[in-house]
Amino acid sequence: MFYIDNMTQETNDLIEANKGFSPPVCTRFVLPLNVSKESEKGVNLVTLKDTSAAAVVQEDGSVYCTPDAIFQGLELPRINYNFNAKKYRYVYGSRVEWSPHPNKIAKVDIETRTHVEWFQENCYPSEPVFVPSPGATKEDDAPHRPLSPPAGVILSSIISPDPSVSPFMVVLNARTLEELARAEIPASSTSTCTDTSSRPAARTPLQLVARGCCDSAPQIRLSSGRVGAKG
Q: Which residues span the membrane (predicted)?
């Protein structure tokens, strides 16, 4: 992607050229903790049944680890950090397909290897951030409770090259990725490799109330903008 020659190409040519590059892959390693000089050489030390990851002891005593490829085309992965360093099931990230610019938000179930997506035409989301519901104890709601409140929401700032589409922050149900609300910001915005930033035209407090997800909806305060709710 980052070649000077690409600066002279038309957009469609650039898209075709980028299809030749390898997309990012969400992988998991299993690191064996009990490795000693007596560990048998050439044997896979991973005994877990739900992964294809391997860790094989080499002749020189080192351990060569091979990851389990879970999902192709996912960048900036996030989890419910209440489950950090614990067994978790869901990963949220930005979908990256033909270019480094993500155009979707995805939730990946690493047990079933399935995923759901949020998408809006001609829009580019930032890294999704998981915000747990107050008092939530579960990583996610069970599938047999479709009407129960989500265990949290996903926040992401969205920009578009279309000048008629204002930058906005979207609030998604973390279980289904259904859009709950959005806050539009009438300001110019740019997308870079590591940051999506806006320069507000005014410093006017804004309150966004998420609707329909709980009896006492949390409020999210922004620095500037207007609210456009969907639901």
A: none
